[in-house]
């Protein structure tokens, strides 16, 4: 008995016919021959090919649409996703799910939950696929068609699709869905994560695409106006092959086309290296007004001020540091072991703001840093942790003069 699932078997069959599927997709149809006859029959069995005219075959619409979305292929007047139909289906599924729960039909309720989860995913995927197609159209400026008139009609088609989808997302009451799904944690989470939280992003991206389509339509109109002028001028040249434009300086007033281009900015100046320019330079110098005498205000001399001595900042020690030093100073002179926890209790004036665990940890750290060079002996009251290997539980620390 085979352990392969139906999906694995289907994909393995599809892989065997990859060449035939590719040829059919890019050529829109394929002619049946002896070489591809077996592939065609297999693809018809798994319902991916449908017959065409003159012994040819084409991909079924659902499979072709899947490839268009997966490959971001630009199509002419693509229909797009029926998002409104998906929402209508989701409403019906929610209503049937509520009735199944009320009637106590648990098996039916679970079946509807699976269908609702798939419907939510279908809506999110369809909007995402729609954005992918629209972005491809906008990025290429409808490169699948060549004339401005075709591009303009394509633009109007996708602009209408986008505006309807934006209107649907803005006017639909998603709160009603959220209220109906609030009783089921998994469905509510799916609806919120897959769709509700992504709706604002979808809406803004679609508005951006719609704005670009409107901008492109305006540009297409300008290009069309310029193309109309060029065609008119070409027609005029065809009808009047001997026509030549007149020199602009032959008319009393310049023609209008002279003012279309921005004039060139020209500037001239006399050449100071040429003796002939001396008279011109003299005239220019004579027109320059005499400048008033410049007055320079000098700053009065300053006075020497003796520098004051540098300010010395004395940083006060923290209470924890004072207590640690006092403990070790007392331990260094004690012939008996001093308990750190008892010392902490007996000196509330120094340790009231210090936690007991912080106190023990600070003493262990101070001993590890200064213990060898210090004048005290140190010992920890500890035992191994029952769960974590290599860790110990410290109950108390003892300190006394060095040598004990």
Which key phrases capture this entry?
single chain, 404 residues, mainly alpha, 3 domains, 3-stranded antiparallel β-sheet
Short précis:
This protein has 404 residues and is mainly alpha-helical. Helices cover 57% and strands 7% of the residues. The longest helix has 41 residues, at 199-239.
Beta-strand proportion = 5-15%
Mean pLDDT across the residues is: 78
Derived structural class: mainly alpha
Helix content: 55-70%
How many domains, as an integer?
3
Give the helices and strands as they follow along the chain. Answer: HHEHEEHHHHHHHHHEHHHEE
General form: flat
Secondary structure: number of strands: 6
The rounded distance between the terminal residues' Cα atoms is 80 Å
For the largest beta-sheet, the strand count, sense and barrel status come to: 3 strands, antiparallel
C-alpha Rg (nearest Å) = 44 Å
Number of helices: 15
Spatial ordering of strands, largest sheet: 1-3-2
Runs in which pLDDT lies below 50 for 5 or more consecutive residues are none
Written description of the protein model:
The protein is mainly alpha-helical. It folds into 3 domains: 6-65, no CATH class; 83-226; 319-401. It has helices spanning 6-16, 18-27, 37-45, 61-71, 83-102, 106-140, 148-171, 174-181, 185-194, 199-239, 278-287, 319-332, 340-346, 348-351, 356-370, and strands spanning 30-31, 49-51, 56-59, 338-339, 376-384, 392-401. The strands form 2 sheets. The chain has a 3-stranded antiparallel sheet. Strands 4-6-5 form a 3-stranded antiparallel sheet. Strand 5 and strand 6 form a beta hairpin. The protein starts with 5 loop residues before the first helix and ends with a strand.
